[in-house]
Write a structure and sequence with these properties.
Blueprint: H1 2-10, E1 14-18, H2 59-65, H3 74-86, H4 88-97, H5 102-112, H6 121-125, H7 146-151, H8 166-184, H9 187-196, H10 198-210, H11 224-241, E2 259-264, E3 268-269, H12 270-276, H13 281-287, E4 295-296, E5 303-307, H14 311-323, E6 331-335, H15 342-348, H16 353-360, E7 366-368, E8 373-377, H17 387-391, E9 396-398, E10 400-408, H18 415-422, H19 426-433, E11 445-453, E12 460-464, H20 471-477, H21 482-489, E13 501-505
Helix pairs in contact: 1-14, 3-11, 5-8, 8-9, 9-10, 9-11, 15-16, 20-21
């Protein structure tokens, strides 16, 4: 008990609370208030929620007792069951990954009076990979799209993505499932809507009603993915219900919290936090996949998850750490100025360019715009990162690439006009083509090295070349560049023929 009071006195910005809270808890430490300390916060460690089941049971037994979703015909469920049983090592791997999160998710379904099958849904959604990212940009255990995440208050920024946060995403997913169940009054339809969209299921139900057809899940004309979605979950349910029958060895997951949540209001390095908890960095990241940067900023009032078994160790090590006067974070921010390069910034702060890019997740093909705020190492950081700095956007633009083309001089061309048209220097044209003067001849071929920028999300228009057209006139007409047209159509020269078909990006 005194340990926690001492902790509060020296570092009031951290507070440990059980990951699963309820009104039925035992206070291990009451609220503590420290006077004359701007970072003073109460510190409390609560016993995790007491479930109504035998604490000696495994979490799998708890799940079995809470089943509440009606089965579907074996003919549709068994198809998915065969796929899982044919790949038992992979299925067992998923179950092993679930050990860190399953108690919390099951407890949350129990608190809401929801069927415990729903706690198995991450098997289907993400294979229990909290960092999972789909092609459609759905992320996390529960695979929230960015837009759906916004609706359910899952913060997404360059610093963190709450769609990957175990606690927040579970809250949002169960909120969403409850909402859908209230709408359709049927768990099969609610689950299908979670996968395919509420509007799509509503339209399918309305279409069947109009035809005088049943509107249950089995009678709806669903595409392949949502049609298989509910059977997949029920196949997992069968495996959990009777694993021995299918040769599945479920890991013995204890019916107790795997993690506790630490709320903090001071910047804290990810590696430092893992070190204080004496937890493998990989395990720490699996519990905290939502953080996009190597530091958890206090400005966002973030929290971290640590293994429950390491809570006392974390507290003890934190006390010792603070007593040495060492900072909890070795990172600060830097605003990019005109003339800066990532290489020069990195050198200034004792980093390599690769380290700087990795810390800020800047791809090799991108550069940072002037005015952007980036994260840099500072072993002597004396303050936490301010809210304005944390919320400042980091704007990335594509790095220019070069492309070699051949240009045939036309009537009226001058060295300066050709240089201006392609955004190059006249001196570079002279040097590349070994010209002794600025004079050009009609029909003369020039080798040019032009810069182009990678473009994404552009509109593309089909165009048939007309008599008198040039790449320059076509580009000007469509408000694009000559190089963009050449790149899109893989043209090696600027010569065009009437009737030639082009794709024009703009």
């Amino acid at each position: 008990m005194n340990v926690f009071k001492h902790l509060t006195a020296i570092f009031a910005g951290l507070s440990c609370a059980a990951a699963v809270a309820s009104t039925d808890f035992v206070d291990l430490l009451g609220d503590v208030t420290i006077e004359d300390d701007e970072f003073a916060r109460s510190v409390e460690l609560r016993e995790a929620q007491r479930t109504l089941v035998n604490p000696d049971d495994t979490i799998w037994e708890t799940i079995r007792r809470g089943f509440g979703i009606a089965d579907l015909p074996n003919s549709v469920v068994d198809k998915e069951l065969k796929l899982y049983t044919r790949a038992l090592p992979y299925t067992q791997q998923m179950a092993f990954r679930a050990r860190m999160y399953l108690y919390f998710i099951v407890s949350e379904t129990q608190k809401r009076g929801m069927p415990t099958e729903l706690a198995l849904l991450p098997f289907v959604e993400s294979a229990f990979k909290p960092e999972a990212l789909s092609r459609s940009k759905a992320a996390g255990l529960w695979q929230f799209l960015p837009s759906t995440g916004d609706i359910f208050d899952l913060r997404q920024s360059s610093w963190r993505d709450d769609r990957l946060d175990v606690v927040e995403s579970t809250r949002a997913a169960l909120d969403y499932l409850q909402y859908l169940h209230n709408q359709f009054e049927d768990w099969h339809l609610a689950l299908a809507a979670y996968n395919w969209g509420e509007g799509s299921i509503r339209r399918a139900v309305a279409a069947n009603k109009a035809k005088g057809l049943p509107t249950d899940f089995m009678h709806l004309p669903l595409p392949n993915e949502p049609a298989r979605y509910v059977p997949k979950l029920l196949a997992i349910k069968k495996l959990v219900e009777d694993p021995d029958r299918y040769g599945l060895k479920l890991p013995p997951i204890a019916n107790e919290p795997y993690f506790v949540r630490v709320n903090k209001n001071r910047d804290l390095d990810i590696e430092t936090a893992a070190q204080l908890a004496e937890t493998d960095l990989q395990e720490f990241r699996l519990l905290n996949p939502s953080f996009n940067r190597p530091v958890v900023v206090a400005a966002h009032q973030g929290s971290i998850l640590i293994p429950a078994a390491k809570a006392d160790t974390f507290v003890s090590n934190l006390i010792n750490w603070q007593s040495t006067g060492k900072p909890l974070s070795n990172w600060t921010t830097y605003k990019v100025k005109k003339g800066d390069s990532l290489k020069a910034i990195a050198k200034r702060y004792g980093m390599t360019e690769d380290e700087l890019r990795a810390a800020n997740k800047i791809p090799k093909s991108r550069r940072v715009q002037i005015g952007s705020t980036i994260l840099v190492k500072d072993a002597h950081a004396k303050r936490d990162i301010a809210v304005a700095e944390a919320d400042s956007a980091m704007r990335l633009v594509p790095l220019p690439t070069t492309r070699r083309i051949t240009y045939r001089v036309r009537n009226g061309d001058t060295l300066s006009s050709v240089a201006s048209r392609f955004g190059v220097k006249a001196a570079d044209i002279k040097r590349q083509n070994k010209l002794k003067s600025n004079s050009l001849k009609v029909g003369q071929r020039l080798r040019l090295t032009i810069k182009e920028v990678q473009r994404t999300g552009l509109r593309k228009t089909a165009y048939r070349v007309k008599r008198g057209d040039t790449l320059y006139t076509i580009a000007k007409r469509h408000r694009t560049s000559v190089s963009a047209i050449m790149d899109e159509n893989k043209l090696q020269s600027m010569d065009l023929k009437p009737g030639q078909r082009l794709v024009v990006p703009h």
